[in-house]
Amino acid sequence: MKKKALLFGIVLLVVLTAVLGIRWADRDGRFDLLQARIDYSGPVDSALVAEILRPWFQESLLRLNTDSLGMELETIEGVASASVRVVLPHSIVVELHPREAAAMVVNGSGSIPVTLLGEPLPQGWADPALPELRVLGNPAESSIRAALNLALKRDLGTGTEVTVLEDGIQVVENGIPVLLHCDNAPGSWRTWNSIRDSVRPFAEQVDLRYRGQAIVRPSGGETV
Description:
Strand content: 25-35%
Structural class: alpha/beta
Distance between the termini: 100 Å
Order of helices and strands: HEHHEEEEEHEEEHEE
Shape: rod-shaped
């Protein structure tokens, strides 16, 4: 019993000494943040990253809430996720994972890179190699997302031009405008694939916005 009590006393003394030592070192500034390493790819706004991190410099790393800081970094436009790792005694490592640009949305005021969900990104994400999605008027965001999904996930073929209208999606294929309903664009496109060969020789426009119907406007003739 005496040996157990002695061992317990020694362990307790070591723990108390360590705790007091850490507290003293903390008060003496031995764990203050002095440097940060930022790991990221993509044109993330480094000025905004620095602005968020600045208040934490010269503050103790022992009181740094890494989860909270990570969530604050995720508010930066174009950042998908962020994580912060403490490296004692004076450093942190910040990992930023940027969102991916899927297309360029072109409207009357210019062009802007967007994600697959239609979320706008800073101009630093602009890339001439990205597919273009034209927008006319003021369509709903859901319509833009539907058009992006159609343009990027379906094999539309080369040379097609996709435009989001206020009342649907227009795909120009080989000079023929095909109008699709935003809520069922993939299904409407499958319908177009099934009738393309039979109507292409004489069609000037094909309207598939009405479920179960294909309204074909022939060249120089009446709608059928």
